[in-house]
């Protein structure tokens, strides 16, 4: 599902999900020297961010949610640390921070508004959505939510077998006169409520195979343009209830 | 914003365990930095917490065992912190107490160890190594949440060296939006090879004890630390004692460069101005600033320009990095605790190791500590990727 236009019919159940490699474009908005330094994971985060921002002209706060960040970089640093003199690359090191994609996006968009970068392991999507919506409501600003994760290289893959890359971004704006798009209401859920699954087995495999894909039921509701209540898994056994209104 | 009461706090750093030991070292101008005694390391100093080797997590906590969580648990057990959190859980309910913690590298030292144990072929990592319960950024929130028995919103923020300052902003928003009545905020970062050699690769590690604002400063010393605070609505719970108050926060992005601050400190300046605006006070009402003050040439120059622009050249300020080293993702919470101690004791620390103030810098930072009447104080934290956060505290 390369982009929202391609994803929408799949999420609506009109077209079956077919697994295929997704080409991640180099982030055009970055200066050439910064662009060269980006990794596949950074390009994944920036690609979905840029699509969600295609109509955004003003500044916006952003929240980047990723369970693992960039484990390719961690792998390369850990390998370097086993070599004589431990030659860690300075570019790899500054890209190793969890907020690297958020930092690159702020540079690409010349955007001085604050950003957050967070993890709640398999509850990262719920934690990111909660942080983003809380910022919209309390600060009255537009907030971009970006969720992304990808499979790590071996030997880390053996410890965290994430099934394929997945990224998604939502631009959230304050409700009120002139507001467009779907309307979201969120609240921490209590009790033993199970997270909402995806309707098709292929999408459900994707949802459970990548922490960022935990957002799929919410995306399906948005694609269907139908009123729906979604339960997202948070950290530990916690839950987030999301009311979607078209 | 509505002020939030700080009703408990705790800190562990190279200066000692708990607030009393840390404060005594600040008062006595006694540094926690020591030369790194690893044979194969380049010459530098660091701020190591003593005794962590004997504090392994065992039994039911075995899966979470890593240096970062040893440090976290050590801090949680001090200064009566757990007791106050339990009282808050009893008063509000566990689901109404949020958790917002910051870390830059979480338990990455466990992954480094797993690679070393699997070298040279690196085919499979050791069986007992649990990536998501140790190294994952979210592992810190997961561990602290379980350890404190909380069930409210819980997350780890990771924006490099501003991580555990930005947790205050997230907690204040969550309480303001009615998502919770109280919040545990904090941060933990522990010594690892990744940050030691990573910062060294950028020529940012000093071979000598770091010298913030000094003409001859040569960079940072890496430190490790953990700290936590309990924030709640004023008067929300009978029997709580208010140590100090969070009055404002300000956040910004430099949008400039991944590892170099904006040369004129524009992002830092904006964060400080926003924090003042949310606190509803004027710049001249700030009696003390705990600077980010890492002692890299570029950080101190950018922060100097920003502070001078907002406060002028004579505001009382200092950097405590010469005591603790740069504790990275824990720096925000450590210096938040220090800043509230300054307010409680009405005494301002100087800047350890500052000998010859850099003539290129405008702000006259304090070299020596001394008593001073203060009602409001600020703490600054700035991180890689240009993530800035300033906090305003008051009595």
Write the layout of secondary structure elements.
The complex is a heterodimer of chains A (246) and B (395).
Chain A (H helix, E strand, L loop, with lengths): L3 H8 L20 H5 L3 H13 L8 E5 L5 H10 L9 H6 L4 H9 L6 E5 L4 H16 L3 E7 L16 E7 L10 E7 L11 H9 L6 H9 L3 E6 L5 E7 L1
Parallel strand pairs in A: 1-2, 1-3
Antiparallel strand pairs in A: 3-4, 5-7, 6-7
Helix pairs in contact in A: 1-9, 3-6
Chain B lengths: L3 E10 L2 E2 L1 H9 L6 E2 L9 E3 L19 H10 L4 H12 L4 E6 L5 H11 L12 H4 L4 H10 L5 E4 L5 H14 L5 E8 L3 H9 L20 E2 L1 E9 L10 E10 L12 H14 L6 E5 L6 H15 L5 E2 L2 H4 L6 H15 L1 E2 L21 E2 L4 E8 L3 E8 L1
Parallel strand pairs in B: 4-8, 5-6, 5-7, 11-12, 11-15
Antiparallel strand pairs in B: 1-2, 1-9, 1-10, 3-4, 7-9, 10-16, 13-14, 15-16
Would you write up a description of this structure?
The complex is a heterodimer of chains A (246) and B (395). Chain A has one domain: Thiolase/Chalcone synthase (Peroxisomal Thiolase, Chain A, domain 1). The radius of gyration of chain A is 18 Å and the shape is globular. Chain A is 35% helix and 18% strand. In chain A, α1 packs across α9. Chain A has a 4-stranded mixed sheet with strand order 2-1-3-4, with helices on both faces. Chain A has a 3-stranded antiparallel sheet with strand order 5-7-6, covered by helices on one side. Chain A is of the alpha/beta class. In chain A, β6 and β7 form a beta hairpin. Chain B has 395 residues and is an alpha/beta fold. Chain B has a single domain, classed as Peroxisomal Thiolase, Chain A, domain 1 (3-Layer(aba) Sandwich). Helices cover 32% and strands 21% of the residues of chain B. Chain B contains 12 helices and 16 strands. In chain B, the strands form 3 sheets. In chain B, strands 1, 2, 5, 6, 7, 9, 10, 11, 12, 15 and 16 form an 11-stranded mixed sheet that branches. In chain B, strands 3-4-8 form a 3-stranded mixed sheet, with no helix packed on it. In chain B, β1 and β2 form a beta hairpin. Classes of the chains: A alpha/beta (246), B alpha/beta (395). Chains A and B meet through α4, α5, α6, β2 and α7 of A and α4, α6, β6, α7 and α8 of B. β2 of chain A pairs antiparallel with β6 of chain B, so a sheet runs across the interface.
